[in-house]
Fold each of these.
Amino acid sequence: MRARLRPRFPKCTNVRAPRVMLEYVLRRILQLIPTLLFILVVVFALVRLLPGDPASAVLGDRALDADVERINRELGLDQPIPVQFVLFVKSFVTGDLGNSIALKVPVSTLILERLPVTMMLTFMAAVFAVATSVPLAFLAALRRGRATDTVIRSGFQVGLSMPVFFVGLVLLTVFGARLRWFPVGGYGEGFFDHVYHLILPSITLALSLSAVLMRNLRSAVINVLDADYVAFAESKGLRSGIILFRHILRNALISTLAIFGLSIGTLLGGAVITESVFAVPGAGRLMVDSIYGRDYPVVQGLTVALAVLVSLTFLTTDLIQAWLDPRLKK
Amino acid sequence: MKTISLTAVSVAALFAVTLAAEAQERGGVMTYGRYADSLFLDPVLNDANVDIWILSNMYDTLLLPSADGKGVEPGLATEWSVADDAMSVTLTLRDGIKFSDGTPITVEDVVWSLDRARNPDNGIWNFLLASVASVEAPDDKTVKLVLSQPDPAIEAALTVFNAAIMPKAAFEAMPGDTDAAKAEAFAKAPIGSGPFVLTSWDRGSKMELVRNEYYWAEGADGKPLPYLDGLTFEVIPDDATRILRLQSGEIDGAELIPFSRVNELDAAPGINMELFPSTRVQYVTLNVRPEIAGKENPLSDPKVREAMNYAANKMAIIQVVTYGVGTPMQTFMSSATPLAASNGPLYPYDLDKAKALIAESGYPDGFSTSILVLAGNQDEIGIATALQQMWSQIGVKLEILQVDNATRTQEYRDGTFDMRAAAWTNDIADPGQITSYFAYSPTIDALHSGWKSDEVDTLFVASQSEIDPKVRAEQYARIQEIFNTTGPTVPLYETPYPVALQDSVHGFVQIPLGNNIFRETWLEK
């Protein structure tokens, strides 16, 4: 294990490094537990603080008092809130997230159906964002102040300032309806069809993220370019490729990576609108519908699932950062 | 600009049906774009239009609503008769009818289904069958509904989705201890006797249905309906995307086209913009209690309400919000409702009269009030903004409060709102349902407004068991007169159901109650 791990951390000259890393990972995972508990309590309370109850939301304007009372009783919502919370935590620890009030299916089933869709969309968006922003940021930084730089920067500025639903509709109209290169929304069947259907939505979602990443990375690269060790490496006569990847990219990426990690949460939020415009059956739409419908079990289960997802993303980016810059491990 | 009158559309639709009778083609799968997915496909326990409007494609009822939404046609029952004393209905089952799994439909299934539908502990629709005292099966072809009182709406009630016939044995074989638990399992892959069978359901995305081999009705070509091999519902929540998919040919039809796009699609080649007559009415509900949260309520003054009604320029609102598609209301119920009054538009715009009325009222200097609208709902925001400007002319200062649906429903039910925007669609081809909610105070306090008329309450109770059509018509005329002149609403407009179809789609109809009927739909190749 140790032998396999070592080459992945080339900067860790310390023999105990893998162990330090392992402890770090464990510590971070343990830190997740109180975070999740806190989220659980907050979500449980918040969703009940909203005006309206599931029965009224589900039955709508025509509900008679007797119907609302009967449904609230069936759902156990006539119990005192602390009792409800104890029951909720009890079933939660046994892995039972309850049933959706509106859809009458287990929340766990819904999460397993819908969350992977959003994860895939977010992942593809992240890939698109990185694939466009990293090379262009370098190009802009290396051509700082020249026409290329201006074009790249203003291009991304436009991308950043356009609302998601608008970009989505433009892409759908041009590449879907007109050129017929991509389907006009939907999710398709089978893995590759899913990927094909998610190309336009993920580009839409990636747009604002890539703009943020590009701007950040560009200034980071410019800072590093001015650093003494780059000048030193150049004077040593190192090949420019080596300087670029080993010295510039590695150091410039650290701060951008932090932003990237934090943006994943925002990206998941942006997925709500994107999923709606592109008719993608993801968790974002489910979340919005469930909040409007006061579908307490779904909101609770989905929030916790998303919280785990975001926390794991933070953990991963932290680990990569720690690998890039071992000083951060402390 | 092209204006489409409802009459013209209905006539055209009739023509289409007549013409279609000569040239139907069989086969093909139709894809229909819906704005939202269904929630729960149980006829008795569901509670949303997203379910109700498609249920009749999977489940069948003893009687069927006619295409104009006002009459009744044979369904699983071929004949029916109401007893002379109007205390029972006897129906004869069609020969050879089967569920989609091939098992025969028996009188036991019918008795069990209707008993389940009228059980007061089941769902929110049991009131439609409240007059039924018992359901009996004198022989294996006959079903007899014994009534506790005469019910003029009983035939219409037997066409409603909740009276669908379900297979007793298959339902009871489902896992679970309670009816609700069994229904949850059953509704995932329902077995009914409608023209289609659900074969797969990706929640939030897609439903696939195939033709039911055992469906009883015959097409114009003498072979069994439906004409289509299959039917796919795709969920496309965004209006613009739904239209785009239709324009790109990926779907054959799209529901709920925004009014702002109706004229554009009507002019578009290859697309048939249909405006199906509906029972949908749009109005504002006013809380008329003397006090709201301890504060004096100007809306309780009938003169104030009358003034506000005259100051609301409905034609302008129809232009701004529905792009001219809507029509002014003549009574609180839609003109497609049986017994709806038709004495010309209610409260035609008259600012001078409004000013005079407010001067005579207890609030000659005006007052401040508020309206609850759904956040993000462009129609409601448009209505409220227009009313804000119109009512400022008579000194009424209107605050627009954008809230989500559950919040609004809570305030509505608690009776703590001032005003709210609202819409209504009938579920039964009878004026009883809408009148019960709007005007009869024991149901929900007349739209939770606190309005009450003893005369209306008495008339309504009498009308519910009045079997003389002439007397019942008189009762409804009076109820409408009272409600329309003193009631707690500002009636705004009626709108049709805007559905856009490819030109190749024929024989699709959305009836005034909202049901999407695909049983005679066919695709031209």
Note: Residues 469-486 of chain B form the longest helix (18 residues).
Amino acid sequence: MSNVKWPLFEVFIRSKLAHVHAGSLHAADLDMAMTNARDVYTRRNEGVSIWVIPSDQIFAWNFDGETILAERVYEHPQITRKSEEQKEAEQWEVFFRTKQGLSHKHVGSISMNTASKVIAEAIQIYGDSLKITNVWVVPSAKINASDPAESESFYDPAEDKLFRHATFYDLPDEVKHM
Amino acid sequence: MSDSKNISLEDRFQEKIDNNIQIEPKDWMPEGYRKTLIRQISQHAHSEIVGMLPEGNWISRAPSLRRKMGLLAKVQDEAGHGLYLYGAAETLGADRASLIDDLHSGKAKYSSIFNYPTLTWADIGAIGWLVDGAAIMNQVPLCSCSYGPYARAMVRVCKEESFHQRQGFEIMMALCNGSPEQKELAQDALNRWWWPSLMMFGPNDSESKHSAQSMKWKIKRFSNDELRQRFVDMSVPQAKILGITIPDADLKWNEETKQHDYGKIDWEEFWNVVKGNGPCNKQRLKTRNKAHDQGKWVREAATAYAEKRRQRNANRAKTA
């Protein structure tokens, strides 16, 4: 029987301008999640920066025209429904899904004291210029970001693994589409 | 009242699908769609994980460093693919630990191709060429399936899968252009892996129960027979380039249909393997359970270290 229940984390990768949601993974803690994220999602140097976020820290809202009520990101047994607490204002990062089929993409930061207010403000600010189908928000403090100062050593192992690429394998012209 | 509301939700859901608008985790979906997807995605994930075993068998005996690196990287990718897929299943509310328990107890299914043994090094070439080839044939259409997270996982998988097939074909090329004994090895591997690869596409459309609903929901884009035919037509010229013979006396080009006609599949063998009586079913399950049990200390160590780190950070915060 699987007796270990590690928390779930969402992984975001930035290859050019913004962090884009790549997928999820389980790890014993945030630090181990970061190393795993590097090994799972950037084996072929797909990105220059990784953000790892505990799934249960992300608040979500689906654009269905009703009142904004921040909910949990998935209906998952390990992600407990949180009630929003009134706290001091803090910085939140905002991610939008701008079309069904696309991953969530980071758009910017907003300072507010509840998730619902952040979502409402984000839609206010970006809603005209961007089509939005779903919003994710998370307190910036909950994000584990890969250290840019350590980028070289962090991504170095993937640099010389040419055998992971299709072009490494020599095939005759007749099967070049393979 | 609630019934008519549900009907309109179903209609709106089906309309999205008909209009190629993808479904995302927080969208309303029929319970049947959710359940079928969890089953399909988790079976796919289990297949990746169990698929590591027949190939892992030859890592220590790969004939050169180049071959060893390629095979290690491929098997590592399969683990990664399993992980992307478990992740996609979790967006539907499935709990990964339960999915893995079902695999280990024998309750969950995985692709029956992985219940065949890798008897020689040439099998590794045949698997990369044929089994990954068949998988690609199945996975490329799924990149536009109706459920967002599954489609995106498939895009990620397909990007990595290309090297898998090329690696396998390169091995077959080396063997087929080598000594007569090496070519014989390659022919023997083709003889043993050809028909099971055709069976990977599942039963004939007429026998496939869930197909119609899955096609309507666009979690299956092409029929079993359609994909199988494409696979045959793709593989025949590839076998010619290698200079080995596909073990099917009935295989021949049909000028009318512009396709290859092929022989009858032994469905008795297929169902027997699916039911658990293939050459390696018991061995695969035993190996998976053993790996899980023997890896317990690693999970416990990681958990203990996480707790130690959490306490250290909490103490630091107190004294700060």
Note: The longest helix of chain A spans residues 30-41.
Amino acid sequence: MEAKKTAVKTKKDSMLLITLRRLAKNKMAMAGLAFILVMVAVALLSPWIAPYSYDAQDLEHVFSMPSKEHWFGTDNLGRDIFSRIMYGGRYSLRIGFISAGVAALGGITLGSIAGYYGGRADTIIMRVLDVFQSVPSLLMSIAIAASLGPGFTNCIIALSVSTMPAYARMTRASFLNVREMEYVEAARSINASDFRIIWKHVLPNAISPMLVQATMGVASGILGAAALSFLGLGVQPPEPEWGAMLSAGRNYIRDYWHVVLFPGITIMLTILSLNMLGDGLRDALDPRLKN
Amino acid sequence: MGRYILKRIFAMVFVVLGVTFLIFTILYFTPGDPARMILGADATDAEVLALRAELGLDDPFLVRFFTYVKQVFIDFDLGTSYVNNRSVSSEILSRFPKTFEVAILSVVFAVVIGIPLGIMAAVNQYTWKDNASMVVALLGVSMPHFWVGLMLSLLFALKLGWLPASGFGGIEYLIMPCLSIGLGGAGGIARQTRSSMLEVIRQDYIVTARAKGLKESTVIYVHALRNALIPIITQVGNMLGVQLGGAIVVESVFSIPGLGSYMVSGIKSRDYPAVQGSVLFVSIVFGLVMLLVDIMYAFADPRIKAQYQRKRRKG
């Protein structure tokens, strides 16, 4: 009995290991992962390693160009942009990761119910999702953010709700394939509970597209948060979320381009890294590309 | 085919009713009093209360909802804006052409840049050309549209003075906003084109086409691209549908008086009829574009066309 258990366990680990090993071979994906880890570390450590505080004003040195003291220059209140970007990661990255996580969790749950049970549950869930998806997702998050009021948590809720339907739809499609498999029938024939079948048999075999989607979802969460803040509906000043920095700097762009350039580049590189990781993950999970 | 289209339009009626309910509910729970917004801070409480009663804002949720549904779906009236008393439908109709121009030109930019880039990458898989195009495409999808817009306007309007920085008029006003949206779209389309072309290019009929001595360009553009087109059409259609709902953030960067800016200002000033009316309009347009995409499939792929015809014969 004991030996059997370990055997099963080793086999499970090896599938994960195969994927990870294939992912590790992908240089682009690893470069992306490395950059994200650096950004996360910088954001976590920002109170200790940032040269200035994010709200330390220096009204004698407003709009300084990039220099040795201020690598990325200073903004309209003389705040150090480099430090603000480091602190900003705490907002932007957290919004990205949490909103993608919540959306994936909610979407996968809804999609599992719709895809596994079918019938009336499926119809109801899918019709509601049709309604949600017939409004462009940015517009949906704007409406929700306006209704809840601006702020960090509300921004996450708005982004999660508006991106959830995509996960649900993918999960459902994936479940429809897997639920007809023989091993699911086998599990059902030994009277396993629905929850057990979904959790142990269907979900692990259906989840790979959602993993890729969630990685990319972190990226779109960060972009969505930036757009919300840019319209004044997201994280509020003086908090240094990257989109809020762009929004605050846009009026000074004519003479002080550095105020807008650096936060934008930071967003771009972060999204780029997440997309590279997502691409790598998709290739690693694709059985057709197995070597 | 005709029957399928009718069925889809019938289904859309329910989606639109659902959207009405959804947006109505969201706005119902939005804090802020439209009556106070209209009258300003100087108005007395009595005046505000009177206006609330007049606008029907004190009625229960369901009464307000059904009044609105009756007004929209039976009297075909989207109401008048709280802010400037103009009819919402005429405001939407006067703004939609601008949004339409921006959307079409953005999609054109995206297609003209994206598809050739994707084909070049697929045909030269694993060479420097492939890598270079995919890096460009990845950069395209990784930049926030409005930031690209700001950077373009910094360079071409403020520094070089070649293009106007904001406003709406001739084609010169459209180039920067549409380019900033189009570049992102081009990245997505290029990535889709590459992966879809790679799947097709290994098929037997491509080998056959080459074997019978066709020119390489004919093989790629006629035999391969046509078969790779369906996912690309989906991507392009989706982009068009989203953009016809208003380039929300880019419109704000370039002060374009389109649908997007109407909705954002409506949301900010609690102009409920304006927001409800335009979201409704956007969802109908989105639904129609998606229907158009499905019809396009039939033109791109004879197999799908045959399916419709078979269904008709059966029914």
Note: The radius of gyration of chain B is 24 Å.
